[in-house]
Structure formats: C-alpha cells, structure tokens
C-alpha cells in the first residue's frame, strides 16, 4: 500500500541514512539491501522517512546478528553510486538523527563505525577512480 503523505519532494540530499530490518518505522526507505539483492523501493526524488535524506534499509535484525559481508559490500557499492549523484551528502545511522535518539537503528551489531570510517577514508577516492574510469571509457587520450 502506498502512503501518499510520503509523496513530497525530499529537498537537497544531505544524508544517506542507514536502517536495519527492525527499524521502528516501517516505511519511507528508498533502497533495501536483502541477502541477495539491492531493491529500489521509492523514487529518489521523493521524500522518504526523513527530509533531505536517501534512506537505505539493510535487511536483518542487527540487534542480534551482524549483516553479511555480501550485504556490506553491496551497501558500499550503493553508497558509491549515490555519492556520484549527490556529492555533498554524507553517511549516517538512523540513531544519529537528533529526534530519533531512542532508537538503536541500524542495530547494535551493525558495523556503523566501520562504514562511517570507510566513507570518510575511502569513498572520495573510489568516486574519483570511477570518474576517471568513466572518462577514459569515453575518450582515447593519444599523442
Ligand atoms: Zn531506522
């Protein structure tokens, strides 16, 4: 069922916000990372759970278990894709939203610190590598 109250413009994207399967709010996710696929649930230009945010749900209960390496690697690929389109946005966890401090989402066993460190240290480098690769695929630089 579609909740039409969510069909608003989301504003300029400032955050890629991470959730798990046990998020206290059950809708408003733009992407879901299942054990086997990355699904697009909501058009990026529409507002999801939070304003100025692309919401990504990683399926699983990360209070009791950690996500699989496969899920984490697909999450990183998705974040890299999004970073190409929204260069100013940064990664965060749902519980870092000021008014949602009571939730532990995306779960205590979700490696949020590791993902944030990765996005601080590696993400821009990976983005630049992709831009270079895309450019080189379009042009042949010869003298
Ligand atoms: Zn959440």
Give a quick set of tags describing it:
single chain; 143 residues; alpha/beta; Lysozyme-like; five-stranded mixed β-sheet; 3 helices; 5 strands; globular; binds zinc ion
Report on the structure:
The structure is a single chain. With 143 residues, the protein is an alpha/beta fold. It has one domain (9-138): Lysozyme-like, CATH 3.40.80. The chain contains 3 helices and 5 strands; from the N terminus they run ββββαβαα. Zinc ion binds at residues 19, 23, 94, 105.
Structural Rg: 16 Å
DSSP helical segment count: 3
Q: Widest sheet: strand order?
A: 3-2-4-1-5
How much is the average pLDDT? 91
* Total domain count: 1
Tell me, what is the CATH class? Alpha Beta
CATH architecture tag: 3-Layer(aba) Sandwich
**Multimerization state:** single chain
Q: Give the helices and strands as they follow along the chain.
A: EEEEHEHH
How many DSSP E strands? Answer: 5
Flag low-confidence runs: none
Note the beta-strand portion. Answer: 15-25%
Q: Kindly, what is the distance between the CA atoms of the first and last residues, rounded to a whole number of angstroms?
A: 58 Å
User: What structural category characterises the helix and strand content?
Assistant: alpha/beta
Mass-distribution shape: globular
Share of residues in helices: 25-40%
CATH topology: Lysozyme-like
Q: Could you state the CATH homologous superfamily?
A: Peptidoglycan recognition protein-like
What profile does the largest beta sheet have?
5 strands, mixed
Ligand set: zinc ion
């Amino acid at each position: 069922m579609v909740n039409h109250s969510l069909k608003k413009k989301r504003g300029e994207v400032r955050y890629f916000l991470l959730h798990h399967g046990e998020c206290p709010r059950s809708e408003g996710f733009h992407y879901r990372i299942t054990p086997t696929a990355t699904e697009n649930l909501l058009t990026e230009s529409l507002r999801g759970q939070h304003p100025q945010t692309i919401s990504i749900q990683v399926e699983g209960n990360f209070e009791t278990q950690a996500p699989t390496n496969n899920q984490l690697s697909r999450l990183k690929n998705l974040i890299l894709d999004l970073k190409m389109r929204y260069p100013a946005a940064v990664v965060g966890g749902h519980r870092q939203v000021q008014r949602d401090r009571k939730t532990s989402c995306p779960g205590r066993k979700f490696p949020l610190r590791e993902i944030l460190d990765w996005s601080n240290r590696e993400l821009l480098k990976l983005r630049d590598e992709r831009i270079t690769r895309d450019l080189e695929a379009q042009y042949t630089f010869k003298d």
